[in-house]
Amino acid sequence: MDVIQLSDWLLNIAFLLYVFSTIMFVLALTGKRWGKRSPQEHEERFGKIAYYIAVVGFLAQACYIVTRWIAAGRSPTSNMFEFMAFMDFCIILAYLVIYRIYRLTVLGAFVIPLGIIMLAYAYVFPQEVTPLIPSLQSYWLKIHVTTAALGEGILAVGFAAGLMYLVRTINQERRSKSTTWLEIVLAVVLMLIGFIVMDTSFAHSNQKTVFELPTQAQNNMGQMVNQQVVYTMPAIVAPKDAKLIQAGPMQPLFEAPGWMQGKDAARKLNTMIWSILSGLILYGVLRLLLRKRIGAALQPSLSNVDPELIDEISYRAIAIGYPVFTLGALVFAMIWASEAWGRFWGWDPKETWALIVWLFYSAYLHLRLSRGWVGTKSAWMSVIGFVIILITLVVVNLVIVGLHSYAGV
Amino acid sequence: MDDRKCECGHTNPVGTMLCESCGKPLDSRQQLTAETAKEFPDMRYEGMARRSQTYSKTVIDKIWNFFSSVKIAIYLIIITLIASAVGTIFPQQQYIPVPVYTEPEIENFYTSTYGTLGKIYYLLGFHNLYSSWWFVTLLVMIGTSLVICSLDRIIPLYKALNKPRLNQHESFLKGQKIYGSMELQEDKHDLFPRAAEELKKKGYRIYQEGNSLMGEKARFSRWGPYVNHIGLIIFLLGVLLRNLPGFYMNEYVWVREGQTVAISGTPYYIKNEQYTTEYWKEDEMPEKLDLQGGVIPKSYQTDAVLYVNKNKSLPGAEPDLQEVARGPIVVNHPLEYEDLLVYQSGVQEMQLGALNFQLIDTKAGNTPVGSVKLDLFETKPEQQVADGIKVRVLDYYPDFFLDASGKPATKTNVPNNPMFALEITSDKEPVKEKLVYLRGSIITEKQDQRYTLQIVKPDLIDISGLLVRKDKAMPIIYFGAFIVILGLVMGFYWQHRRIWLQRNGDTLHLAAHTNKNWFGIRKEVDHLVEKLELVMLIEQKKK
Ligand code: HEM
């Protein structure tokens, strides 16, 4: 077995361990009335087990990073797969640190699944070890990307705690604006899961749909030929004015609007539609099974938790993550941009979105400090903040193309 | 009654919320008891008077109050955030993928690519959003706000923090978020020394006066936000400075292999000795990749020489070039000379450098007579091909097209579509023949010319795009960024914590305050209570 294979296996093991850890966390919260033990003892015991499984998973993932680094001869932070996997590592790391401070078992029940989703999302991207293109050949690559990912990982824990706060405190007796928004947030999480499931299941089936575009590009032989787009997912939406040259499992229902530019725009729209659809289906199934709002179903498991403590954890995570993010995503990014491109700031979409994230969390801190936005308002801000991070990672990378975009889906 | 005069006898400046001397809330309407303690004034500025809270009469006061308000700061931040996001909906003009030179071309790009939305985007000026007057104004307003809010608060905070708050009024202690009290049964003489001991172990500094003890730690962290705001001010100043002449220079030059070009606005010249692109070889890659015939670049490199023109100050003199620096320029490793930096920034590979021909004598059985090279950049007006045979360039259009009146002209100086009109003369016989080269073919003037040209492989060259930059504001910008980080670390990784123990008669009061991390200070208070064996219920007020 070569080193790359070994590192792949280590990551798979980490993934499985995180899944086990989540199961243990769920048991810790739901199985309180089992057996002879007191509910508190039960939660503590299973929480500990879950925590230690997560630690072992974390170690496995650390070994993945080391082995992949050795095999690649460069830091494993150079394409979208590696970056997402690394960010997942940072989320778990931030969780372990915050857990050591506050010792709150249920925190893991929210953070570890978030980590699993991030890691699963990483698997959507090509996993090969790619050599570095010239602009990435700088030690600032590792410094900038790792610090930025660490900052985002810590902010993600702030999000998980903020979400917990909302699940814990929103009044579920009646339907309200708050319950609806909470359901929307949970549905978006399910859409991300839906996307991952759809993408992985179709990646291995041979159900490709191929379109020929009216636009031309040079092929490897230097000839001008019509561009082709390959869909792995069934085509709901076809590129504008394209010719179907290999039919997939279904006929496209409509064409993408003309202003969606770029060879892959329609395919991305198609992927987006499938993600939303599958997320909504997942949501519907869950609603039918639970027979109540998902927020309402989750609430009882948090009934023992002091809301002020979760509020403080969320804030603390953001307070710890914000300087790290500033350093990694802005300061180091500027230094590197200055070395690589001769300018420290160029309003490239990726740079701009890092600034947006930063401005948003600055607003959060000012609101919290000076206007007394604590509790619910602050929790919503932490959720929105993470949504902006996701936009930066997902939408900007995949939809808006800039200098930074790694190879996309 | 004069609000400013506290019952302890101290006269406070207008606007003070907590008596500077004894800490009693000063608002006479607020007779604080334990029950109304929720309305205890905010501890953020220690109840100190701030200018913005005190004066609001003149225009200057109003402007001052506007910019010192955190609410306004938050609005400014949010507006900047939204504006920045709007700027990423469509590409900014500098990132348009096709070359555009004129306003109509730019407008056309947005309209034809993005439809009506694109047109609106263009008309609103969002294609140059980040350099628009209103966006720059926003940044300047944030800067102004940062300066004024810092001035508004630094002095009051300094005054408040520099004087330990000892011997405080009971209502000050009761007003704190963490508070507890107990009746002391026996006279515990060693209570304060033991408390001091315990607190010292946790890193607290001890202040003591009569029946009052305070442990304080990490006071400096209260300065974190101010340090970070000052860093931001320095950073923004650095950015503004770049607009002054001499601080910032940015030139883009295209240099052909073998060419030396002047860098405008400087005494420097740069020569491209050789340009190379390297690609990753298959055996260098850690994993076999299916690139579908494509390649992955490994390095873009220009071997360059930097010269300085010694005669720069003599108008009209021939340049006298002296080498000052030499070396490879690759991405991420610019060539440095004093404060000048030269970056590898672009390349046009395999561009036509020169056309090559064989001169053919049709009268002598189509035998080649000699070779002709037409350099597309430095065209020689005349060249000797063989004994007595010359080729003259009559006309050269690098980027040929027929203009509106049907006359030949050139679109640009770039040899995208070179057209030559040539004349061939021979001494031996009076031959004077003309021909034209265009789009890969030769057009002769007469049907049966004696001499003609046969096209052979052209010279292909690489043109390297180099970015020449001078940025004297960079150290200021980096310094500002460093101060920002320093302030953030001070403010977030340490927290100002104070624990008070005070004896009023038989009652022992314990109160604690921190600007952040109540969880942390609560643990320390509980630890203290346990170590001192105090029978005391600590209440932690909800917000
Ligand atoms: C992009 C610009 C800004 C950034 C990144 C920024 C950042 C920060 C940070 C990180 C803190 C510390 C918050 C905390 O400790 O929780 C802070 C506090 C503060 N900021 Fe800003 N700030 C900015 C602009 C402003 C402006 C324009 C004002 C002007 C009113 C302002 C006023 C304040 C005040 C009054 C505090 C509280 C200071 C204290 O604790 O005594 N900030 N700021």
From TrEMBL, chain A:
Keywords: Cytochrome c-type biogenesis, Membrane, Transmembrane, Transmembrane helix. Residues 78-197, 276-404 form the Cytochrome c assembly protein domain. GO terms for biological process: cytochrome complex assembly. GO terms for molecular function: heme binding. It comes from the Bacteria. It is found in: Membrane. Coiled coil: none annotated. It is a multi-pass membrane protein. It holds the Pfam family Cytochrom_C_asm. The keyword Membrane applies. Signal peptide: none annotated. The chain crosses the membrane at residues 6-29, 49-71, 83-99, 106-125, 145-167, 179-198, 272-290, 317-337, 352-367, 379-403. NCBIfam families: cytochr_II_ccsB. PANTHER family: CYTOCHROME B_B6 PROTEIN-RELATED, HEME EXPORTER PROTEIN C. This is Cytochrome c-type biogenesis protein CcsB. It comes from Brevibacillus fulvus. The lineage of its organism: Bacteria, Bacillati, Bacillota, Bacilli, Bacillales.
From TrEMBL, chain B:
The chain crosses the membrane at residues 72-90, 133-155, 223-241, 476-494. It is found in: Membrane. It comes from the Bacteria. Signal peptide: none annotated. It is a multi-pass membrane protein. PANTHER family: CYTOCHROME C BIOGENESIS PROTEIN CCS1, CHLOROPLASTIC. This is Cytochrome c biogenesis protein. It comes from Brevibacillus fulvus. The lineage of its organism: Bacteria, Bacillati, Bacillota, Bacilli, Bacillales.
